[in-house]
Each structure stands twice: as structure tokens, then as C-alpha cells.
Amino acid sequence: MQPPYDRLRERARQIVSEFPLPDFYDVHPRSHRLSHRVFYNNPTVVKLQGYLATRLDDDFGHGLHHAVKVSLDAGSLLAIEGSRRNLAEPAVIARIILVQCAGLLHDIKRKKKDHSHRGAQKARQILRQYPLTRADVEDICQAIRNHEAFRPIVAVDTLEGRLVSDCLYDADKFRWGPDNFTDTIWEMVAFYNPSLSSFMERYPKGMAALRKIKTTFRTPAGQTYGPQFIDLGIAIGQKLHAVIKAEFAEYLR
User: Fold this and answer.
1) What's the CA gap between 107 and 116, in Å, rounded?
2) Rounded CA gap, 92 and 97, in Å?
3) Can you tell me the distance from the alpha carbon of 123 to that of 127, in angstroms, rounded to the nearest whole number?
4) Is 43 helix (H, G, I), strand (E, B) or coil?
5) N or C: which end of the chain has fewer CB within 10 A?
6) Does residue 1 surpass a pLDDT of 70?
């Protein structure tokens, strides 16, 4: 990254540290533990992590680090929704495996046009080598197709499939909160390498997108906790904007 982005990234992370974590991480500890247990112990999910370790580009803000966070939160959301629907734990775990596979794969074609559609096609190819049924693979791929914001939702035939799709979407959009300012925008800056003046010209559009995403969460849990992620992101973004103007003015001339 060109100057002053290294220093600005650290300043942004300092700002994020001044804000509380979203309530989502405190209110449902059992769901988070279950999601972590599946993610780090299920052979299918662990194998897929290994496959993707060298195949996701971190320089675009949507690499393995992003995919892991999405997968873990999607698993937690599914556990919360499964409990709300009184599903037995084995059924919940089976769905968590699918949503975590979808989370790991959802940005496999992130740099391509129509990346959700192309990502679903690539996921079908990859998952041929995994012990999943055709219906399981279809649920994963439909979730990947449906994870982009502000696009029509592709109809999913089953309640179970819709749950996987909606949990993936919500977990991915949680990243539009504080994570946007600790990691995502700086990895994208490293890829595009804009001047700070150009970065600031695009800033209002980015903040408007944050406000717009707030009403798009799909699961009851996502609708409960997602807006707080976005509100935190907006507050952080506003503070960072002021800091840039005050502390980095020499780069805006």
C-alpha cells in the first residue's frame, strides 16, 4: 500500500478497538461453541479449509480470513435458528456443515463479474470430491448464488435450503460492520492502490451502502443482531472520516 495507508489502517483499528463487540457474540455462547466445534472437527469442513488455504486471495478483502469468519458466524446463526425451530441437534449439525462449506466457498470467484453465479458453478466442481449428497451440494450452491446484496434472490425449494442460504447471507453482511474497517477496505486498497484523495471521493458512496444494507438481513437472528453490526460500522466510518480529514490532510491536497 502506498503512503499513508499503513498508518491509516492502524489508526482505523485503534478506532474499532474503542467500540464494543456486537451483542451477537455474547448472547448465544452455546451456538458459537457448536459452530466452532463443527468447523474445527468435522472432516468435510476441515478438508475444505485445507483445499482453500492457498486458493483464496487475501489481497481483495475476501480471502480465507474473511471466509472463516463468515463460516463461523453462519454456523452460529444456523444453530440459533435451529434451536428456535426446535430442530434436533444432529439435524442442526448437518445444516451447519453445509452452511460452513458455503461460507468457505462463497467468494471463490470474488474477482470475477457475477461472482456469486460463477462461484456456485465452481463450488459444484469442487464438491464432487466430498461426501455430500446431490441435495446437499445444491443447497450449498444456492446459498452461494444468493449471498450478494441488492440482487434478486434465487428461489430455494426447501425450508432447510432457505435456512442455509439466509444464514450465509446474514453472516456475510455482518462483515460490513467493524470488520470493514479492520481488514476489508485495507486489503482492497492494497489491491487497487488508489490515492487517498480518490479513496475519500468514494467514501460517501461506501457509507451510503452501509446504511442501505441494514434492512436486508434475512433470518430472525440476523434481523435482531445485524443492524447493530452496521450501526457500529457507520459510527466507526464517521469517526475515521473525521480522523482522515484532521490527521491526514497533507495527503488530500
Assistant:
1) 7
2) 9
3) 6
4) helix
5) C
6) no
CA 198 to chain centre: 25
The pLDDT confidence band at residue 28, using thresholds 50, 70 and 90, is: very high
Q: State the CB neighbour count (10 A cutoff) for residue 186.
A: 20
- 4 preceded by a cis bond (ω within 30 of 0): yes
Nearest in space to 120 (alpha carbons), one of 130, 112, 132, 108: 108
Rounded CA separation 105/64 (Å): 9
| 114 Cβ contact list (under 8 Å, min separation 6) | none
Instruction: Report which residue type is found at 200.
Output: M
Q: Is pLDDT above 60 for 24?
A: yes
Q: Examine the pLDDT at 111 and tell me if it is beyond 80.
A: no
The mean of the pLDDT values for the chain is 94
Q: From CA 44, how far away is CA 105, in angstroms rounded?
A: 13
Domain residues for the domain of 47 are: 5-251
User: What is the rounded distance in angstroms from the CA atom of residue 186 to the CA atom of residue 182?
Assistant: 8
| Per-residue pLDDT tens digits for 115-170 | 899 999 999 999 999 999 999 999 999 999 999 999 999 999 899 999 999 999 99
pLDDT of residue 113: 82
CATH code assigned at 82: 1.10.3210.10
Structurally, the chain folds into a number of domains equal to 1
204: enclosing H helix or E strand: helix 196-213
CB atoms within 10 A of CB 229: 27
Cell for 232?
A: 457500529
